[in-house]
Amino acid sequence: MPELPEVETIVRQLEPALVGRTIAAVQVRWPGTVVGSLPAFHSALRGTRIARLWRRGKFFVADLVRGRMRAGHLVGHLRMTGRLLLAPGTADPGPWARVSVGLDDGRVLHFVDTRKFGRLWATERLDAVMAGLGPEPLAKEFTPAWLARALRARRRRLKPLLLDQGFIAGLGNIYVDESLHAARLHPLTLAHTLRASLARRLHLAIRRTLRAAISREGSSFDTFYRTPGGRPGRYQTRLRVYGRAGRPCRTCGTPIVRTLVAQRATHFCPRCQPRTET
DNA sequence: AGCTACTCCTGGTAGC
DNA sequence: TGCTACCAGGAGTAGC
């Protein structure tokens, strides 16, 4: 489940290998991964050079150029099981490589995705792909004051609100649960009832959680997320609530509760995150 | 505005 | 052992 810390890790690790490379070949093995027409996808990418690799929310973006001219962007979203794998051209990327991008140094960037939820775009209109995304939680624009004001304007439970990419970009199920625990807030708390001091606590919790996860290269479960080098992340051992139903809270020892909120598994400590304290 | 339900997918696993 | 049923879930959409 790649969220902001996982995508950030992938982008940081791939950047030195990809920037400056020219795309020599494009192979689409599963058309559903590509948004838009396949011929347009091929012609938009082939022959371009990767000028920059960066992240916005859970999207990764490669800025493309032809010579000195801007040539649009390759944008991707890993959704549930998507991975980026940079491998020698001779290596077998496995049965789940959906799109493969051959580079001028002989290596191939594979978009590997068992469940086929991931998507790739080749577009000149970044804003069209990322329309309506909320602020970056690690950017300057995301301030305690902004969050307090934004929360006051929403009559919605914190859990689905924080999962909403239009509210804040980049949080997913894992880091919403972790952030709410760090902020000692119940996932069903209504956003507009939060005092400014609690909004500040949530702001701090979100940033600390994301930064800590990035510093350990994200969280890995089962056969899912790996860094482009194939390493698992190291943050899953630090999780305080996610995936820990029935196990003792690392703060107070109370068993972690797992419920369903808006169809999403939701983990919290009933003692550290009481329902009524706003 | 915000909620639920449904869709897309398939490997892994619980239950028998 | 081998089968089936169900689950995980990010995001888009429809309907209330």
Short description:
With 278 residues, the protein is of the alpha+beta class.
Give the topology, please.
Elements: H1 4-18, E1 23-28, H2 38-45, E2 49-56, E3 59-66, E4 69-77, E5 82-88, E6 97-103, E7 107-113, E8 119-123, H3 126-129, H4 144-152, H5 158-163, H6 173-182, H7 196-215, E9 257-261, E10 264-268
Antiparallel strand pairs: 1-6, 2-3, 3-4, 4-8, 5-7, 6-7, 9-10
The protein binds a DNA duplex (16 and 16 nucleotides) through residues 1, 3, 32, 58, 77-81, 113-117, 119, 154-157, 160, 163, 165, 172-173, 222-223, 262-265.
Description of the structure:
With 278 residues, this protein is α+β, with helices and mostly antiparallel strands. Helix content is 26%, strand content 24%. It contains 7 helices and 10 strands. It has a 4-stranded antiparallel sheet, with helices on one face. The longest helix has 20 residues. It binds a DNA duplex (16 and 16 nucleotides) through loops.
* Inertia-based shape: elongated
Largest sheet: 4 strands, antiparallel
Average pLDDT, to the nearest integer?
92
Query: What are the secondary-structure elements, in order, as H or E?
Result: HEHEEEEEEEHHHHHEE
Based on DSSP secondary structure assignment, what is the total number of beta strands?
10
End-to-end gap: 31 Å
Percent range of helical residues: 25-40%
Q: Compute the CA-based radius of gyration.
A: 20 Å
Strand ordering within the main sheet: 1-6-7-5
Number of helices: 7
Strand content: 15-25%
Give me the secondary-structure category: alpha+beta
Low-confidence stretches at least 5 residues in length (pLDDT < 50)?
none
